[in-house]
Design brief:
Layout lengths: L13 H13 L3 H4 L3 H22 L6 H39 L4 E5 L8 E5 L8 E4 L3 E2 L4 E11 L1 H4 L5 E4 L6 E2 L4 E4 L2 E5 L7 H9 L8 H35 L7 H11 L2 H20 L2 E3 L2 H9 L2 E5 L10 E7 L5 H12 L5 H14 L11 E3 L7 E6 L2 E6 L1 H10 L9 H10 L3 E7 L2 E9 L6 H10 L3 E5 L4 H11 L3 E3 L4 H13 L4 E5 L5 H6 L2 E5 L4 H6 L2 E3 L6 H39 L17 H25 L8 H34 L1
Helix pairs in contact: 1-4, 3-4, 3-8, 4-6, 4-9, 4-21, 7-8, 8-20, 8-21, 9-20, 9-21, 10-20, 11-12, 14-16, 20-21, 20-22, 21-22
């Protein structure tokens, strides 16, 4: 199984590195860089040091030219490293977008005059199609635009979009009618109603969304940026006041020299939160890219961040908690009937049932009881399941075979004149339901023969996943159409925190609103039109790509693989983004402690020799101390780019423990690393100066 669209791209792929280096230089344009105010200030500071370097060369500045020139170079590198981090993150997204563009060609389409097979059509280009047009797509033809199948059924190859090599069935009606432009019909024919105008297709939106340059800032990112700007302004004011203070101190002490402009600029850049400001744009862009590697498209950065704050998860039982296809595992007769009689009646009631459950009943009847497949008589009438009757079966040979919910089957046989219901029926139904299975009652004419035990198979390892979510502080709620007893048993086996049984659309919506009013962030998965209201209400709404257009339009995240368990991965990526941002912010601010000990004693040493006791790193000279701090401040940015792009590994634990852990690793580490780094750089400078 291939994953063409979501194949991992290495962090420093040559195809991405070269354009990223060029883009990083383009981003030095002040008209672009002002959007990152902290780095914009660093660029201004770098320009000032360039001027002081020129002055040193002409003798207009007392500081050595090698010092001012080296400081200027490393300040410019600080800005370039920051723009490179953003360009590299954007480049990964652009590389994926380019691969998608290759799959999008302006194919032709057969536009129908009437939405019927056999009607006349006109061949037009895909760009000429508009919303509510109808097209005919036959075998080995590309689907020219997003739409819904309104007639027919076909096998569709969606590898161009999802990367999945196995074809899928798309058919009219139900929740598997949505098709995506750029995919290919490989068998049969379908009529598609176009649901998007040119330039508004799902593929167009995907290309736009995964290009990091078009990503809007999220509220959390904006709030952090405001904090960084505030810190930068504080340090700017401090540095601005240090110059007159040093002049006054020289006059008062009668010795030393005032702090130079180059040193003040170096101090400002080293104390400003440049590390996190440089990496902040890359963190969010890379988060969307990591989701795309999992074949998930986030329609906004806000949705991913909301996923990181989720504390209530609503999950469908079928396909998420269970494997999705219930299996018949047992025939339990009631009254005077035998297992053999029940198996024969169940086989007849399921002969025309093409659902996985129906086929499993046939397999059990044939395998365990040696029954042979009946050849249906010409007068056989199939009774399809409907939500109203909650029954299915067949009328053949003057007999009426039915299987379905207990109350529906009882009502059916009573309507046929049944005088009594087997006394042990209720006990059997309750026993099966309490065990977490689904009881299907089987009847022939006015007699109930027994109950089929349909077992829901819990997915392997799902309990561990829910335990992991619980350790994150996230409450899980299972949503199912089962009766309360069955739902309770499955919930207990799967170890979810709560469940909603016999859930209707309005009840899902009510449950979401109640949790939101209680202050919780709610996430939900869905794929049907009936899920659309709840998806629109949820804070994080994950729609399946195989779902209806209504569900996809209501969602803010779309899973191309249509795997509901992806919600767990989405939450983890959201938390990774928040943690990475918090960890690098902690590291960036902690760095300042070491820089204080490097720069402050050096800049004031000529005025107050007593400050030499603060030179705990024993840096060689004031010039090398300041230069070492400037070099470390710049060099740490590219060293942290892989962490910003990959994200911090999430460790599920209570919030207070997580805070302590991160403070120990990134807080204490952010203090120790600069001490070691600055001292090492100082020793290296001593070899050349």
């Amino acid at each position: 199984m291939s994953k063409h669209t979501a194949a991992p791209i290495s962090l420093f792929n040559a195809r991405i590195m070269r354009p990223a280096l060029l883009d990083s230089l383009k981003k030095l344009d002040p008209r672009i860089l002002w959007r990152n105010p902290v780095m914009f200030c660093v660029e201004i500071a770098s320009t000032i040091t360039l001027v002081t370097f020129v002055m040193s060369l002409t003798g207009a500045n007392q500081e050595p030219a090698w010092f001012t020139g080296t400081v200027s170079v490393w300040l410019w590198l600080t800005v370039i490293f920051a723009t490179f981090a953003e360009a590299l993150a954007e480049g990964r997204g652009k590389a994926r977008a380019a691969s998608l563009r290759k799959s999008r060609t302006d194919v032709t389409a057969k536009r129908l005059t009437k939405p019927e097979f056999g009607s006349d059509f006109t061949v037009v280009g895909a760009s000429q199609l508009h919303k509510d047009d109808y097209i005919l797509v036959e075998a080995h033809e590309m689907i020219a635009g997003d739409g819904d199948v309104i007639a027919g059924a076909a096998l569709v190859n969606e590898a161009a979009v999802t990367g999945e090599s196995a074809p899928v069935v798309r058919e009219s009606g139900g929740d598997r009618s949505a098709v995506t432009g750029g995919t290919e019909v490989i068998a049969s024919s379908i009529i598609v109603r176009i649901t998007a105008n040119p330039g508004e297709t799902f593929l167009d939106r995907m290309i736009s969304l995964i290009e990091g340059a078009k990503r809007r800032k999220t509220p959390n990112e904006t709030a952090l940026e405001v904090l960084l700007i505030a810190l930068t302004l504080v340090f700017l004011l401090v540095c601005a006041n240090l110059s007159p203070l040093s002049i006054y101190s020289v006059q008062a002490a009668g010795q030393g020299t005032p702090i130079s402009l180059t040193i003040l600029v170096a101090l400002f850049v080293c104390l400003a939160p440049t590390t996190i400001a440089a990496l902040l744009p890359a963190i969010g862009i890379a988060g969307m890219d990591r989701l795309f590697q999992k074949n998930v498209i986030a329609l906004s950065g806000r949705a991913i961040e909301a996923a990181g704050d989720v504390n209530v998860l609503l999950l469908d039982k079928t396909g998420t908690i269970t494997l999705g296809n219930r299996e018949a595992v047992e025939f339990v007769p009631v009254g005077r009937h035998t297992e053999q009689e029940l198996a024969e009646a169940a086989l007849m009631a399921s002969l025309t049932d093409e659902t996985p459950e129906g086929r499993s009943i046939v397999v059990l009847a044939k395998g365990k009881y040696g029954l042979k497949m009946e050849v249906l008589a010409a007068d056989a009438q199939t009774i399809a399941f409907s939500p109203d009757t909650r029954l299915s079966g067949i009328n053949v040979g003057g007999k009426q075979y039915r299987k379905g919910a207990s109350d529906s089957t009882i009502a059916f046989v009573k309507n046929l004149g049944a005088q009594a219901i087997p006394s042990n029926l209720k006990d059997v139904v309750d026993r099966i339901a309490r065990a977490g299975a689904t009881p299907l009652v089987v009847s022939c004419d006015a007699e109930i023969y027994g109950v089929i035990n349909l077992k829901d198979i819990i997915k392997s390892g799902i309990q561990e996943r829910f335990q992991q979510l619980r350790s994150m502080g996230i409450k899980t709620i299972m949503i199912t159409g089962d009766n309360p007893m069955t739902a309770a048993a499955i919930a207990a086996e799967a170890q979810v925190d709560d469940f909603l049984a016999q859930a209707r659309p309005e009840e899902k919506l009510r449950l979401i609103r109640e949790n939101q009013e209680a202050g919780y962030m709610v996430a939900m998965t869905g794929d049907g039109t009936n899920d659309a209201p709840a998806l629109a209400q949820a804070d994080v709404a994950v729609a399946m790509n195989t779902g209806t257009q209504a569900a996809k339009e209501a969602a803010n995240i779309i899973d191309l693989d249509s795997n509901p368990t992806k919600l767990l991965d989405i939450v983890e990526v959201g938390k990774q983004i928040l943690m990475t941002r918090g960890n690098l912010t902690t590291f960036s601010i902690s760095n300042d402690v070491a820089k204080y000990f490097a720069i402050i004693p050096a800049m004031m040493l000529s005025i107050y020799p007593q400050l030499g006791v603060l030179n705990i790193m024993h840096l060689a000279t004031p010039f090398s101390a300041i230069l070492s701090a400037v070099i470390f401040n710049a060099a740490i940015i590219p060293l942290l780019i892989p962490l910003a792009l990959r994200g911090t590994k999430y460790r599920p634990m209570p919030a207070e423990k997580l805070l302590i852990y991160n403070l120990l690793i990134y807080g204490v580490g952010g203090i120790i690393a600069p001490f070691l780094g600055i001292k090492a750089i100082d020793l290296a400078i001593g070899l050349f100066v």
